[in-house]
Amino acid sequence: MPVADLLQELESLLGKIDSWNHQYYVLDHPTVPDAEYDRSMQRLVELETQNPHWLRPDSPSQRVGGQPLAQFGQVTHDVPMLSLDNAFNDQDMQDFNRRSLDRLADVTGPLEFACEPKLDGIAVSLLYRGGVLQRGATRGDGATGEDITQNVRTIRSIPLSLRGKGYPEMLEVRGEIYMPKAGFERLNNRARERGEKTFVNPRNAAAGSLRQLDPRITAERPLEMCCYSVGLVKGGSLPDQQARVLERLQDWGFRINSESAVVQGIEACNDYYESLSARRDSLPYDIDGIVFKVNEFQLQEQLGFVSRAPRWAIARKFPAQEEVTRLLDVEFQVGRTGVITPVARLEPVFVGGVTVSNATLHNRDEVDRLDVRIGDTVIVRRAGDVIPQVVSVVIEYRLPHFRRVIFPEHCPVCQSAVEREEGEAALRCMGGLICAAQQKAAIKHFASRRALNVEGLGDKLVEQLVDEGLVSNVAELYTLSKERLLKLDRMGEKSADNILAALQDSKRTTLPRFIFALGIREVGEATALSLARHFGSWPALLASSERQLLDVDDVGPIVADHLRQFFDSLSSLEMVRSLCDAGVGWPDIECAPERDQPLAGQTWVVTGKLETLGRDDAKAYLQTLGAKVAGTVSVKTTCVVAGPGAGSKLAKAEALGIDVVDEESLLALLVAQGIQL
Ligand code: D41
């Protein structure tokens, strides 16, 4: 091929790949199949290898990482990188607003603020000359940082050369490098599989990845950068407002936060804080607060800064999700299937917005990993709705007499033997249904909202019923009489009537609920639904062979084994018979052969709050109809179910032109498909 043609091919490849990268990594909008991308990239590398003098520093092929460094160089920031003052409550925000207004004599109305989620990552500076990335550096202490140019070049959402026109000759862009939650999970899972060390949180993973002297390692890490301000600007100018600058940065190819907003006045800032903090857990990255900035640069200038922090910005921090406290004792809880869980009793501590005095220690492996002793100072973490956890021990505060955690050899409730099954981390009480703890847990599960939904039969009452010897299994619930109930502490006529009525109501149920209510090991709601739809009736399920069970979606050898064990156990079958004799019943289901499941081949995403179903149920039902349910929206998504509070996933679906339905439409669809809710 003539040289001119090869050069033209190279140009065209460079343009295409750069544009695809931008679509994919900055706009979250993939536009080409992976195979096509890979082919083009291969061809580019081939051309560059055959003609090394054509290789440009900003070629997308240069993102794989160059030679390892011996150490990082130092970088002095010509324009210092400021720090942020913190606010922890509404009062701090009021004070910030008042101070600002007092200094701005000309401003009469409410101040305009740019609001941005505060990403929990590493602050960095990128320097572009003539639109080409020259240097990347960490913030360091704000005056000097480390030269991480080689590493930032591997991050796909950082443009190697700027897009569009009109950028200044020299432009320093500042932002946060972070690791999205999904990438962090994948990275840790891989490390775990290989028996390597895992990272504590996405921030540490991002910091560790940037600190690599070998950029090839950084290149493999799922890092992203989101920009939030500029430093040095020479030979050109920028808009005169924070939000406008962000828009301009986006035009030039940078990723900016899609949650950013401009609001009027401090109350609106507080509303923004509340609404984003409610959605915090569903964001694809960790944030530790919200940054509020006076939007007008002219006002920013008037306000100036004190020591190292601007007077025109403030970071409202979320309550800490990790705190330090003391481990007072370890107790052992026996669950529904006999699993014995060590529970940490803690000196009460305020963390993640609530007071925490218990945290799970999961199992023996976890206790060994933490090497925790009673009396230790520990770090507890409570994020979102998850159960508080002990994440680590502060070894420096350990005293020699602190005791190790001793696991029981007998069940703390029924004294039966405790065993550890092969390949399992959990210890288990072998008492089965003679164990009062297991009886209570089984009954609580049976009566719970998603199972037979016996209203008013709460945990406390179940415990009383078992402790008083009135009930020892779920079938006996239906033998309860009013006289017996009235013997319980604090049980009045009316409550007793209500409970009997609720028990009566619970008898009319559905097959999936009934299967789920039995509490068979590993049989959750989704599996119960699949089983019900596959077999259609209880006798058909009971008569199924292991092979037939394995034909069901979500049923693998382990679940099949648990099911067979249940069906082969006389006491289990007797219990089912007693339940049916007591009048528990359900209509059979029409089975849908899996190949003509109505949503087969489709991918759905559920986001926001679903008032009636809840997200878990919605997902389970969609799966029963054959859909795949994914956690992120992409071009492959068929439909998004969005409830109140839906955020970036909804925005993305709209941007990609993907169908969006509300909960009501989903309910209608489920009912139309013969699902009884
Ligand atoms: O998302 C962030 N972590 C973030 C950090 C942000 N959205 N905006 C920021 N703005 C600033 C000023 C107002 C000083 C330009 C920041 C930071 N600073 C910052 N990050 C680390 C130290 C300071």
Pick out its properties.
alpha+beta; 24 helices
Radius of gyration: 30 Å
Distance between the termini: 66 Å
How many H/I helical runs?
Answer: 24
Q: What integer is the average pLDDT?
A: 92
Give the percentage of residues in beta strands. Answer: 15-25%
List the quaternary state of the chains.
Answer: single chain
Helix content: 25-40%
SS content category:
alpha+beta
Number of strands: 26
Low-confidence stretches: none
Can you give a write-up of this model?
Helices cover 36% and strands 21% of the residues. It is an alpha+beta fold and 677 residues long. Strands 14, 15, 16, 18, 19, 21 and 22 form a seven-stranded antiparallel beta sheet that branches. The chain has a five-stranded mixed beta sheet with strand order 2-13-10-3-9. A hairpin with a 2-residue loop joins strand 11 (305-306) and strand 12 (309-310). Helix 1 (3-26) crosses helix 2, helix 16 crosses helix 17 (525-535) and helix 17 (525-535) runs parallel beside helix 22. The longest helix has 24 residues, at 3-26. The radius of gyration is 30 Å and the shape is globular. The N and C termini lie far apart (66 Å). The mean pLDDT is 92. Residues 82-84, 116, 118-119, 123, 139, 176, 228-229, 291, 293, 310, 313 line the site of ligand D41.
Topology readout:
Layout: H1 3-26, H2 34-50, E1 74-76, E2 86-87, H3 90-103, E3 112-119, E4 122-129, E5 132-138, E6 144-146, H4 149-152, E7 170-178, H5 181-193, H6 202-210, H7 215-219, E8 224-234, H8 242-251, E9 261-264, H9 266-279, E10 287-294, H10 297-303, E11 305-306, E12 309-310, E13 313-317, E14 322-334, E15 339-351, E16 354-360, H11 364-370, E17 373-374, E18 377-381, E19 389-393, E20 403-404, E21 418-420, E22 427-429, H12 436-447, H13 459-467, H14 482-486, H15 493-506, H16 511-517, H17 525-535, H18 538-542, H19 546-550, H20 557-568, H21 570-581, E23 603-607, H22 615-624, E24 628-630, E25 639-642, H23 648-656, E26 659-661, H24 663-672
Helix pairs in contact: 1-2, 12-13, 16-17, 17-22
